Amino acid sequence: MGTSLAQPAPGQIQPVAPGTRTAPRLQTLALTPPLPEVKTVEVLSNGFVRAAHAIILLSGAQTTDGRATQLALLAAERTYRAAPDLLEVDVSVYRAKGYAGFGGPLPLLTLSVPRERLATVRTSVQTDQYDRIWINPQIDTPEVIAPPAKLLEKVPVFVGSRAEQLKQQLQQSLSHARGGVRGGLLFQGPSSRRQVALTFDDGPHPLYFPLVLDLLRRADVKATFFLIGRNAVAYPYFVQDLVRGGFEIANHTFHHVRLPSLSTLQIKTELSSTNTLLTQLGGQNVLYFRPPGGRYSTRVLNIARQLGLTTVFWTDDPGDFQNPGVETVEARFGKRLRPGGIILLHDNALDGLLALPDLLKVARQRGYTVTTVGALGR
To answer: pTM for the full model?
Structure first.
């Protein structure tokens, strides 16, 4: 699209906020007997249960669907052998050449094996009856080439003329004063009830996602998940888990790119392709959109409205993606909690995961109902 090939494709390098601390290294498992193709098996706990994620790297001669499937099944079985207490084992199989971590080229195959499915997974996969496997069709996903931005996701940032900025300031002021959707934007809900919306950005991610869902189910809390299209492509069963569980799915663009600098066609593609994908996967109409980094413009808002989307921001950002420490996340959350608030967390942030039970407990103790964006103010 007229962009230098030296610039990385969106999603290949996930944006990192300035001042972000390095996340602690996760525990790893050794498989017996070992599988040479397994790069690592990471294990994580949410305080109640543990999950694991195995990453497999295949050389060019091995990158067939059959070989990828065989190794994914072996990795899942041996991971459970090493840690029988696991809630779930996720497996991602990549080409070794060009592998760049989660934000790089999509996997060749992904597999999710909840503990209760372990006994039947091999037979189900071999007879094409297993619903928690994705094999990359090697069809190019929509691409919008843009350099990754290193921007702090702290407050919404409107990009536009002085007149447009003044209009946005007025809309924000009215929204914060009265609550509710105004001009296709939602900054906070009505302040008449002690009710807040819980939202998670950037998902779905293997390893973290099952643990977040487990905590929400334990607390009997529903939330809204703003999903990245390219992530949903590779882990479609996680999207279906959300819909079956009564959670709300929403649009966070296809590649997690900052939108104001893109062309009108590129913006439409980022939003419409994600809408189509999520609707196909979950059978749920997508009604809400959150711009990555909180960066938006009049053009972005108009395109979102044309697609039937309400643009949603937040009032309470504990900064879990910066790895500030669990205590800091909890303190920030408690300080900013207010009626009609919209809480921003991320489904792959360790501090947010570990703090979540206490965040929900604090909200409950203060008399708040925690719900979805769609239910806020109903």
So the answer is: 0.90
